[in-house]
Amino acid sequence: MHSTITSLSPGIARITRFSPHRQKPEGAGDMTQTNAVWVMNRHADGPMSDDNLVLREQPMPEPGEGEIRVRGVYLSLDPTNRVWLSPRYTYLPPIPLGDPMRGFIIGVVDKSRAPGWAEGDIAYGLMQWARYSIINPDRTAFMMKMPAPTEVSLEASICALAMNAHTAYYGLLLKGQPRPGDTVLISGAAGATGVQAGQIAKIAGCRVVGIAGGAEKCAMLVNELGFDAAIDYKAENVLEAIGRTCPDGVDIFFDNVGGPILDAALAHLAMGARVVICGGISDYDNIEDPDALYGVKNHFMLLMRRARMEGFVVFDFLGGADQQRCERDLTRWFQAGRLKYQAHVVEGIEHAFPSLKLLFNGGNRGKLLVRLDRD
Ligand SMILES: NC(=O)c1ccc[n+]([C@@H]2O[C@H](COP(=O)([O-])OP(=O)(O)OC[C@H]3O[C@@H](n4cnc5c(N)ncnc54)[C@H](OP(=O)(O)O)[C@@H]3O)[C@@H](O)[C@H]2O)c1
Predict the structure, then answer these.
(1) Which InterPro entries match (predicted)?
(2) Hey, what long-range contacts does 87-95 have (CB within 8 A, 24 or more apart)?
(3) What are the structural domains of the chain?
(4) Using one digit for the tens of pLDDT, what is the confidence trace for 235-251?
């Protein structure tokens, strides 16, 4: 497997990985008549294993009344996919054995029996790890009609206007409640959600410090995305580095990682700080085993600094005025060039599950996507 990097626009790299071996799914036949689908084979118990999901060839599905069929163009790979492999009820019910893996897809409506949706519309939402997904747009948790590709490319839409950007917006602005001049610290800062949260915090007039793994990611945060400072958690003492880069304390900690990094941030909270728990990727492999989960030590700092710590899920804000405001602001900022993104594109549905581990070893450079088909 090799990779090429091409520049999309100043400071934005696109990485495309090509595999020399294009594997066909089990039972692969005439691809025009069938659908390739990743299905739940064995729930996770600890670190992911190769057999949690299997790729199957299934009959091409037809939409029923009120449904659309979406030809997927990009599948979004997300850390929460590991959470969804769990047999436990998390914030969504577990996926039964034999059912398709759920995932965020952007694609083209190829058949519609749903009011308000026409062939050729660009659909984004919670669908399936499949080339073709059938969904009822009115009953899907996260469903949006996206701009035509002539206005915004599908890659830009999924990176800068979809779930990760919504998460950054709701978490940073509605939960974090930034004030100009606040110091905002972000973990997992070079990832899909982190880069958007940092740029939104800059738009809100804050001083922004990112924590990421490696000199290259830290340089990208400061030199290309306008972060005020970056901490390489793989090379520095994070506790000391937060003290050095946030001398007046941390007003908002936007946490994507959890574990010892959360503890280090808690130690540096400013008075009245807000700790926004967006994710905890460092512990997702332990969710089936409470004894293995990291135990936070510095929670007393919430008391000492009269601080608030609150978790949220992006779904909490959908379907109302918050979502409308979010879509409007993200579009405006994106069009004004104030929201950059980085896409890391893996070619081919057969590489979807094997590529998920990139999120857990830091191998992704920006939003991790699987290209399923041409635009
Ligand atoms: N609350 C919500 O509704 C919501 C929605 C979307 C995402 N999230 C959460 O937001 C977080 C980021 O998601 P994303 O999609 O934007 O992924 P991402 O940041 O693009 O990729 C994950 C990154 O996490 C870092 N990481 C992995 N293991 C780590 C560890 N043990 N310690 C420190 N850093 C580690 C890696 O970056 P480095 O190279 O820097 O280590 C990796 O690139 C996840 O926790 C996810 O579950 C929450």
Answers:
(1) ADH-like_C, ADH_N_2, ER, GroES-like_sf, MDR_fam, NAD(P)-bd_dom_sf
(2) 87/43, 87/44, 87/45, 87/288, 88/287, 88/288, 90/287, 91/313, 91/315, 94/43, 95/40
(3) 2-146+342-371 (3.90.180.10), 163-315 (3.40.50.720)
(4) 999 999 999 999 999 99
CA of 282 to the centre of ligand 1 (A): 8
Q: What is the average per-residue pLDDT within 179-207?
A: 98
Distance 356 CA to ligand 1 centre (A): 12
pLDDT digits (tens, 9 = 90+) for 323-366: 999 999 999 999 999 999 999 999 999 999 999 999 999 999 99
Residues with CB under 6 A from ligand 1: 78-80, 164, 167, 188, 190-194, 212-214, 217, 256-257, 278-282, 312-314, 359-360, 362, 364
pLDDT above 90 as % of the chain: 90
The amino acid sitting at 285 is D
Ligand 1 center–CA 220 separation, angstroms: 17
